[in-house]
TrEMBL record:
Residues 348-357 have a biased composition (Low complexity). It comes from the Eukaryota. It comes from Mus spicilegus (Mound-building mouse). Cell surface proteoglycan. It holds the Pfam family Glypican. Keywords: Cell membrane, Glycoprotein, GPI-anchor, Heparan sulfate, Lipoprotein, Membrane, Proteoglycan, Signal. This is Glypican 6.
Length: 555
């Protein structure tokens, strides 16, 4: 056969062989794609009835396709929207945990303070009557400052408590010495003797330690819940990069364009896409886990030595105990003050006629603990802490696990049991590339998503810094220190390990300290005994050692 004939026949035969196959491809229907596309809410006017040439496609394989340019654009936006919703759904647990628990703890602490103030007011009105009501602003100011500290006010707790006891000493000193007139300068001198004379016994020192540590822990813990809530809310609202959007479109909707709308992505293929898209979120994980660990440590403090509920519930009794100590040692205190500040001027005749015992001779009805108002939602701090600890532990590694959680969703992938009949980015077959490790730097060779590892997400870095700052605050609170007001004294500096308290620094109970009074005439002794009867009733249900001490006084 002549060569020219061969040159004509061979190309013709090749053409004849390829024509039927091409005709078959062109004849493939897009009916399944049209149905799936319409189910997404899109207009069927965009989609052809049969496959068309795919040279116009910018993301999906440029082969015969059921997708027009308009379809590819719309499905690309749809993939972005679905990805954003998936991340928000997957992080729903951690977000609702911080939102709901912040609300619960904040409600609890606020109501605890309100109840403690109401309890003290009710008790003192019944116990001290008009004397308390005339001086109630001293106690009201105490609770006002405690509330202001809790809500983020710039309050130095130790200075505020020292001021409270100094003011209380000034008021009581006038009440136990009504026969004298005291100027402002004289009363200021009196307040300077608070630490030296210890007129209120050991109550102020121990209460200061307990109040400062419990309030620091409570406020910092709620601030931690606030930061966790804000970080979780912000990070869950992702803004995918153009490279991520291309990869999402290719994974989720290029099967539509290939006429395979029911074929879902391979699991490992999904993991590489998600790890590339969520690379910066994964970098949040290290600081997030440190933050959760610090929250758990402070939660343990709230259950134990820094339990604000165990401090605030009986604060009325503790303050009343301090007042009783002042009464019992009033003569010694007065004598030492007169020695240090000078002899005061006598008061006008009308006022001096009223003696101290008459001022304090008040009938007292024993206080029933059952009358104490319940705290928020009838719950307790221990129950709240137990609940939050369980949920905090579950939120660890939440950001690095996002790709795995999303790719386990049966709505997204074909699952791990169907590795042969899944979409691998090009066709229905096994996905072969290896799975990338977590984090931004590990995406340098990600086969699915173009990731610039030299440009970390600024927004995520801001959240990392916020967590770092909060973790530092929590560590300080764990040790009993406020980052704004760290005290270097032995009494209030915390230990970095164990319970954070020494036996003589963080007592679980108050010791009752008495001082022997100087000899007085029988009439005076009888009046003092009458003046202190209400106090013995108050603490009759308290510690056994306190009761025994009182009994000794009355013999």
């Amino acid at each position: 056969m002549p060569s020219w004939i061969r040159a004509v026949i061979l190309p013709l035969s090749g053409l004849l062989l390829t024509l039927p196959a091409a005709a078959d491809v062109k004849a493939r229907s897009c009916s399944e794609v049209r149905q799936a596309y319409g189910a997404k809410g899109f207009s069927l006017a965009d989609i052809p009835f049969q496959e068309i040439a795919g040279e116009h496609l910018r993301i999906c394989p440029q082969e015969y396709t059921c997708c027009t340019t308009e379809m590819e654009d719309k499905l690309s936006q749809q993939s972005k929207l679905e990805f954003e919703n998936l991340v928000e759904e997957t992080s729903h647990f951690v977000r609702t945990t911080f939102v709901s628990r912040h609300k619960k703890f904040d409600e609890f602490f606020r109501e605890l303070l309100e109840n403690a103030e109401k309890s003290l007011n009710d008790m003192f009105v019944r116990t001290y009557g008009m004397l308390y009501m005339q001086n109630s602003e001293v106690f009201q100011d105490l609770f006002t400052e405690l509330k202001r500290y809790y809500t983020g006010g710039n309050v130095n707790l130790e200075e505020m408590l020292n001021d409270f006891w100094a003011r209380l000493l000034e008021r009581m000193f006038q009440l136990i010495n009504p026969q004298y007139h005291f100027s402002e300068d004289y009363l200021e001198c009196v307040s300077k003797y608070t630490d030296q004379l210890k007129p209120f016994g050991d109550v102020p020192r121990k209460l200061k330690i307990q109040v400062t540590r419990s309030f620091i822990a409570a406020r910092t813990f709620v601030q931690g819940l606030t930061v966790g809530r804000e970080v979780a809310n912000r990070v869950s609202k992702v803004s995918p990069t153009p490279g991520c959007i291309r990869a999402l479109m290719k994974m989720l909707y290029c099967p539509y364009c290939r006429g395979l709308p029911t074929v879902r992505p391979c699991n490992n293929y999904c993991l590489n896409v998600m790890k590339g898209c969520l690379a910066n979120q994964a970098d949040l994980d290290t600081e997030w886990n440190l933050f959760i660990d610090a929250m758990l440590l402070v939660a343990e403090r709230l259950e134990g030595p820094f339990n604000i509920e165990s401090v605030m519930d009986p604060i009325d009794v503790k303050i009343s105990e301090a007042i009783m100590n002042m009464q019992e040692n009033s003569m010694q205190v007065s004598a030492k003050v007169f020695q240090g500040c000078g002899q005061p001027k006598p008061a006008p005749a009308l006022r001096s006629a009223r003696s101290a015992p008459e001022n304090f001779n008040t009938r007292f009805r024993p206080y029933n603990p059952e009358e104490r108002p319940t705290t928020a939602a009838g719950t307790s701090l221990d129950r709240l802490v137990t609940d939050i600890k369980e949920k905090l532990k579950l939120s660890k590694k939440v950001w690095s696990s996002l790709p795995y959680t999303i790719c386990k969703d049966e709505r997204v992938t074909a699952g791990t049991s169907n590795e042969e009949e899944c979409w691998n980015g090009h066709s229905k077959a096994r996905y072969l590339p290896e799975i990338m490790n977590d984090g931004l730097t590990n995406q340098i060779n990600n086969p699915e998503v173009e990731v610039d590892i030299t440009r970390p997400d600024t927004f995520i870095r801001q959240q990392i810094m916020a967590l770092r700052v909060m973790t530092n605050k929590l560590k300080n609170a764990y040790n009993g220190n406020d980052v704004n007001f760290q005290d270097t004294s032995d009494e209030s500096s915390g230990s970095g390990s164990g319970s954070g308290c020494m036996d003589d620094v963080c007592p679980t109970e108050f010791e009752f300290v008495t001082t022997e009074a100087p000899a007085v005439d029988p009439d005076r002794r009888e009046e003092e005994s009458s003046a202190s009867k209400f106090s013995s009733s108050l603490i009759s249900w308290s510690l056994v050692c306190m009761v025994l001490s009182l009994q000794r006084l009355y013999r």
